[in-house]
Design brief:
By secondary structure, this protein is of the alpha/beta class. It contains 11 helices and 8 strands. It has helices at about 55, 80-95, 110-120, 140-150, 170-175, 175-185, 195-200, 205-210, 230-240, 255-260, 260-274; strands at about 5-15, 20-25, 35-40, 60-65, 100-105, 125-130, 215-220, 245-250.
Length: about 270
């Protein structure tokens, strides 16, 4: 049981004709602790962070939010993408009176995190790239992702067993089928703009661009990530001087969901050391 009483606020900001949904977890009025922003991947929404918010909320104010077309956020103009997400997140922070934050991006959220860092570098306290290229492409990562796409990508090929998902390690479903099934169910309440995901994937930023921010960076990867192999994410991390790397065993592309205790511990150790 958590030692700290936490309170949840939620709301929307309107930007470029879109309603961008956010949630803020705090200890109540007057909470001035540092802020952590959790940006979801293409298979998720703000709700996927249910195992992280209580743990991180012990030490930080926590923002979760939905990017355009995901969860409770609209996509009326059909113009999602990293640049739009960067502006939307800035608008959320502005609405909440938050000047800077630690940024955590899972998979697609890593691209949104990088875009925010590019456009609003002075507002970034640190970056956690969770099982994501985040636009920091290397030739090896491009080759690996092309091969994953040839195998069917996130859609896979044909019916799959209950609880099986390309973003999860096969052992996750074998260990707890109901929990693995929840992963799929969390993404079943909306129709995300997956047809636009390719444009996001192609967006890139250089390692030098991120290094120039001079902020602490952590890469977290699941040992069995079939989308962005852990060894290749470790190599990408090594291109950023001073960046840290943590690998989570018995997990695939989503260790925040598959091994939440290990993931939370690694991220908290990093954030508390910043």
């Amino acid at each position: 049981m958590a030692d700290t009483q936490l309170f949840l606020q939620s709301g929307n900001v309107i930007r470029e004709g879109e309603d961008i949904y956010w949630e803020l977890t705090t200890t109540g009025d007057g909470d001035s602790r540092p802020v952590v922003v959790l940006s979801h991947g293409a298979g998720g929404t703000h709700a996927v962070w249910y195992q992280q918010v209580p743990a991180l909320g012990e030490h930080f104010r926590v923002i979760t939010w939905d990017s355009r077309g995901f969860g409770n956020s609209t996509n009326r103009n059909d113009e999602p993408g990293p640049e739009a997400a960067a502006g939307d997140l800035a608008a959320v922070l502005d609405a909440l009176g938050i000047e800077s934050a630690h940024l955590v991006g899972q998979s697609m959220g890593g691209w949104h995190t990088s875009a925010f860092a590019k456009d609003h570098g002075g507002r970034v306290a640190s970056i956690v790239y969770a099982d994501t290229v985040g636009g920091l492409w290397t030739p090896e990562l491009r080759t690996a992702f092309a091969e994953f796409s040839r195998r069917g990508g996130l859609a896979g090929s044909g019916p799959r067993p209950l609880g099986a998902h390309p973003a999860l390690w096969s052992g996750t479903g074998e260990r707890d089928q109901a929990h693995a099934f929840l992963y799929e169910q969390l993404g079943s309440f909306h129709t995300p703009p997956m047809d636009k995901l390719g444009a996001t994937i192609q967006w890139s930023i250089t390692h030098d661009d991120i290094a120039a921010l001079e902020v602490p960076v952590l890469f977290v990867a699941g040992t069995h990530d079939a989308i962005f192999p852990a060894t290749l994410l470790a190599a990408s991390c090594a291109l950023l001087r001073g960046a840290e790397y943590v690998e989570i065993p018995d997990a695939g592309h989503s260790p925040y969901f598959e091994q939440p205790q290990a993931w939370n511990a690694a991220v908290l150790e990093f954030l508390l050391g910043v």
